[in-house]
Amino acid sequence: MDLIIPDFGLLFWTGLVFCLLLFVLTKFIWKPILNAVNAREEKISEALELAEKTKKEMQLLHSENEKILKEARAERDLIVKEAKEIAVQMIEESKNKAKVEANKIVENAMSTISLEKAAAISDLKNQLAGFSLSIAEKIVRGELASDEKQKSLADKLADDINMN
Question: For the whole model, what pTM was predicted?
Fold first, then answer.
């Protein structure tokens, strides 16, 4: 039974050692351990707060990046649209200039053709007049080859002049 029920001395010394150990632990060990635990708790809470702030900043940056991307896309679309409009405008201007130039060329060609036609007609009239004169001269020479025919023609012309 001695094993089950301890002696009073053993109990006293065990209690005394326990109290002494408890005093030494509270005096020298508990404070540094509690300070270390509290410091670690503060560091962890600061790290959590910093992580939360960083998470919020990342969300803010992400939303700003999305906004900037949307603006860049809109600006790109606007630039592409303006470039297409300018290209279409340049094509239309080129077409109009080409039409104006073609019309000028056609008008110049028509006026050149008209001038050349008039010159050809004038030349043809001159040649025709020359031929007519040659033919008339040959006919008149044939008709006036004899003296009698010349006198007859002179009389006829004189009568015509007297009638006038």
Answer: 0.42
